[in-house]
C-alpha cells in the first residue's frame, strides 16, 4: 500500500539569549552573496537558501503570486513557537513595474532570521543545506557608463513630457475617461562595472549604515534602500508612507531652508497631492477607516528631502477575512501608484511607454515580504540596483544597473530633473564606492 509523502515542515523558534545570533546585526548573519533582506533600523527579516520559487509576469502576476503562495502554505506543516508577523512561512517578493512580460519573483528561503520588538527568531524549511559563511567581498574599482537611457536622453524625455503636459499639449495625453495626464514619472539608468565580483551583502551593509530609516532590501539580485512604503498589513491594519516632491542639498543652503522651500513649493505640493489622493482612492473600497493627512511633512535623508504622508487605515472585516485584502491582492489594486506612474495612472503609464525608452524591470515595482496570514510589508523598489552579473571568485568582475527618476508635471525644469535623478542615485553609488 502506497503512503503519502510527509509534508514539508516549517519551524519557527525563538533564538536563546546566549546564542550569538541573538545579538548579531541581521545583515551580518547572511552567509553568501545571494541573500534576501528587508531590514530597517536593525529590525526586519533576512534569509538565504531557496525552498521554493515562483517566476511570473504579466498583468495577473500579483494574483498568480498570491494563489501560488497560499497553495504552497496549505501543503506544509507549521510549528510556530513565536507567533509574530513574519514568523512561520515567509516569502520574499519582487514584482516588475510593468504589466508586459518581465521578471517577477516569489522566493521562499530555507532559513529566515527575524527581529521585532526585542524578539529574535529563526525559521527553517525542511532540512536546510549548510555551508560555511563566505566573507563579504569588496567590488574594487567601479566604472560607470550610460545605461539604456543616458542623462541627456533622459533630459530630452523630460522636456517632451513638459511640452505634452503644458498648456496646449494636454491633447496628446488623455486618459480613457477624458481626463488629461497631470503627472508622469520618468526614469533612467546607469551601468556600473566592478573590477571584482559584486557581493549583494556589501551593498546592503553600506546602504543600511547610511540610511537606517530606509528599508534595506534584496530579492533575486535587486538590492537597494527604499524610503517609500507602498503597503504594510498587520491583521486588519494597513499603513503606507507616500513620497512625492523632492529637493536635495546645495552649497550654502541649510537643511531647514530646503525643507521650508519644499513645503512652500506649489509644484511639489501638487505632485505630492496627486500621489496621496490616488493611493487613498484605491484603498478606500477595502477600508472602513482611512486617515490621510491634510498636509505632508518633510522626510530628511542624506541625499534628498522628500514630502511625505503617512496613510493609515483599517480593512473592512469581510475584506480582511475572505482573502481579497491579502497583501499581494492589495498590491495589485494600488500598483502602480501615482508616485511611480503618474496621474491618471493608466494614461500616465502609457505615456511612460512612449517617452522613457527602457525596460524598468523590477525597479519601482513592489518589493518586500509576506507571511502565510497575508500580512507583510511591501516597499517600492527605489534607490536600487539590479545585479546583472555578480561575477565569480577568481573570474571577471560584476555588473549592475542603477535606476532613478522623478515625477514630471507641467512646471518641471528638465535640468533640475536630471540633477534630482543624480541625487537619487547617490546612495547606491556611494555604497558601491565603499561609503558605509
Automatic annotation (TrEMBL):
One of its GO terms (molecular function) is isochorismate synthase activity. Signal peptide: none annotated. Keywords: Isomerase. Its EC number is 5.4.4.2. Residues 180-424 form the Chorismate-utilising enzyme C-terminal domain. InterPro entries: ADC_synthase, Chorismate_C. This is Menaquinone-specific isochorismate synthase. It comes from Saccharopolyspora gloriosae.
Amino acid at each position: 500500500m502506497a503512503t503519502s509523502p510527509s509534508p514539508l515542515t516549517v519551524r519557527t523558534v525563538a533564538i536563546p539569549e546566549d546564542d550569538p545570533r541573538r545579538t548579531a546585526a541581521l545583515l551580518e548573519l547572511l552567509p553568501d552573496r545571494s541573500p534576501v533582506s528587508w531590514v530597517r533600523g536593525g529590525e526586519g527579516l533576512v534569509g538565504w537558501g531557496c525552498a521554493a520559487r515562483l517566476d511570473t509576469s504579466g498583468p495577473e502576476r500579483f494574483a498568480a503570486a498570491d494563489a501560488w503562495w497560499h497553495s504552497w502554505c496549505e501543503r506544509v506543516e507549521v510549528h510556530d513557537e513565536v507567533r509574530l508577523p513574519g514568523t512561520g512561512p515567509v516569502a520574499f517578493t519582487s514584482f516588475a513595474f510593468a504589466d508586459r512580460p518581465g521578471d517577477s519573483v516569489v522566493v521562499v528561503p530555507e532559513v529566515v532570521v527575524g527581529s521585532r520588538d526585542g524578539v529574535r527568531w529563526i525559521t527553517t524549511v525542511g532540512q536546510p543545506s549548510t555551508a560555511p559563511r563566505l566573507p563579504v567581498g569588496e567590488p574594487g574599482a567601479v566604472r560607470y557608463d550610460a545605461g539604456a537611457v543616458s542623462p541627456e536622453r533622459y533630459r530630452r524625455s523630460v522636456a517632451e513630457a513638459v511640452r505634452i503636459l503644458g498648456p496646449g499639449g494636454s491633447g496628446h495625453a488623455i486618459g480613457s475617461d477624458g481626463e488629461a495626464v497631470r503627472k508622469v514619472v520618468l526614469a533612467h539608468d546607469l551601468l556600473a562595472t566592478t573590477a571584482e565580483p559584486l557581493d549583494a551583502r556589501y551593498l546592503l551593509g553600506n546602504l543600511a549604515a547610511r540610511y537606517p530609516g530606509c528599508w534595506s532590501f534584496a530579492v533575486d539580485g535587486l538590492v537597494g534602500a527604499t524610503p517609500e512604503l507602498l503597503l504594510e498589513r498587520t491583521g486588519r491594519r494597513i499603513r503606507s508612507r507616500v513620497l512625492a516632491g523632492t529637493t536635495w542639498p546645495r552649497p550654502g543652503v541649510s537643511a531647514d531652508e530646503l525643507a521650508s522651500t519644499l513645503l512652500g513649493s506649489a509644484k511639489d505640493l501638487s505632485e505630492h497631492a496627486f500621489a496621496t489622493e490616488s493611493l487613498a482612492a484605491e484603498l478606500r473600497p477595502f477600508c472602513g477607516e482611512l486617515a490621510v493627512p491634510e498636509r505632508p511633512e518633510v522626510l530628511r535623508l542624506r541625499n534628498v528631502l522628500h514630502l511625505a504622508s503617512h496613510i493609515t487605515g483599517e480593512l473592512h472585516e469581510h475584506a480582511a477575512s475572505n482573502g481579497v485584502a491579502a497583501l499581494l491582492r492589495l498590491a495589485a489594486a494600488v500598483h502602480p501608484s501615482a508616485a511611480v506612474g503618474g496621474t491618471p495612472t493608466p494614461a500616465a503609464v502609457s505615456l511612460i511607454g512612449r517617452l522613457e525608452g527602457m525596460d524598468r524591470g523590477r525597479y519601482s515595482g513592489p518589493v518586500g515580504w509576506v507571511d502565510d496570514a497575508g500580512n507583510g510589508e511591501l516597499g517600492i523598489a527605489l534607490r536600487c540596483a539590479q545585479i546583472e552579473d555578480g561575477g565569480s571568485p577568481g573570474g571577471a568582475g560584476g555588473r549592475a544597473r542603477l535606476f532613478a527618476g522623478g515625477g514630471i508635471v507641467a512646471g518641471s525644469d528638465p535640468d533640475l530633473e536630471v540633477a534630482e535623478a543624480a541625487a537619487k542615485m547617490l546612495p547606491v553609488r556611494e555604497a558601491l564606492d565603499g561609503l558605509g
